[in-house]
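INTERNAL TRANSFER SHEET
From: sequence group
To: structure group
Subject: tRNA (adenine(58)-N(1))-methyltransferase non-catalytic subunit TRM6

Please process the attached sequence and return the structure record in the designated field. Keep the field labels unchanged so the import script can parse them.
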Amino acid sequence: MARARAADRLNAVLMFSVGFKLSAMAGALDTVKAGDYIVIQRQDYFKLHKVSENGTVNLGKDILDIGSVIGKPVWTTYRLEQKKGGRRNYQLKECSITDLKDDSITMSNNSTSTSGTDNRNIVDDGSSQKLSMEEIVSLREEGRSSKEIVGTLIENSTTFHSKTEYSQQKYLKKKEKKYFEYITIRKPTLRLIAEIMFRLDQGKIFGLRIDTLSQIPTAVNLHAHGKYIVFESGCQGLTAAALLNGLSNEGRLVYVHLGNYPSKQALLALNMTPEQENSLICVNIYNLLRKLKSECNGITGEEIKLEGIQETSTDPKDIELKQEISPKEKELQPALEEESVKPETDNKKGADENDQPLTSSDQENSCQNKRKHSESGNDDGSAKKKSRWEVETDRAVSTLHAKADGLVIACREHPSSVLKALLPLIAPSRNFVVYGQVREPLLELLQELIKRPDVTNVRLTDTWLRHYQVESNRTHPLVNMTGSGGYLLTGVKVQPKDF
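Return from structure group:
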């Protein structure tokens, strides 16, 4: 039985290796370039990392030279080889499937054909292992493989053969996790990015779990050629990445945010192509609504109001910047007004003093001077070069002229004012989704939307998810689980009937 389970585990490892080899062979090979994000997999542990030349990455206490993966295809497996003189410093060496098969720790269980019936007579007093800690560390410093180290530990253990079969497997799994010396470079996907961010810190992504994230594109009725609006604050761009991942080159995503810069950690981790970057439009919510309101209120068929949204930034640096700049602007405002009036008064004075017609030669000289002045780019009438945020605002306004196909809101603030401001920007018979980590603000918004004549099919849902550990003769849920993955408020905008 022990050999059969060890063989099954080895087959799973081999199928995993064959799978990423075949995926790398299919189509064009995706190679790792400097500046790209990669996912480093070590058994069931995943880490997101940005590759740089001569860069390193920490995996626990181990330091790896990750620059050697540049130019190599993804789904490549590497073996950790210890550097000379470096205790926990490793360099990566590309290996094959046969190397992974020969050094599999699970095959060490084949050398032990005996097992006990119970563990009642085993006392965990720390004296069962004959090797000292210094001797175990020296085995690793000598460059021994993980299989050899685990085999040596089993040979010098006085209680391993008397343990039950389940205890032996648990012991091998623990040692395999500690001494496993292979990593796999994977391409970042939305699922991996969401799981890594959720595992590191749930608070940074507003408790957005992968099962809830997967329901958002479905609830908003995402299709590849559509135009969508995402308002997000506090999720590191995860919802925007979920929608952008499902859009084609013809689709457009207007990423509305607070503050000066959007949170794009998840978007950058996707290694966006130039086509995806062109489909993404990042714009500040205040600039967008002001631009729409200043151009014409007839764009959306109704007036866009800013009463429900206070123009305050959540970034402390932005708050300090506003506190420093606003007094200076108040002091310089009279001086700026005088400067704008002074040239006109000076020109009038000059015209009164020199009240004589210009000759033809003077007119030609003045025209030449104006032409040179305009060609040099210093003409007062020439258009100033727009900044990036102005260009993005113009792109967002032109995109929303025909109205969007859906709206997604995921913010730490109360979503009521945000939804009221952005709901007129989507077309009738289009869906909207509001995500919240707690249900009380969504319940208040639900009561408001029920009374509106332009909204129907409003629903508030949550998802119950439980992970189970399924193995032979035992199945039980995991001990550490999240109580909730957040709540989704969904609805459909309709054209209200004129009474």
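Handover comment: The mean pLDDT is 78. The chain has 16 helices and 16 strands.
Transfer complete.
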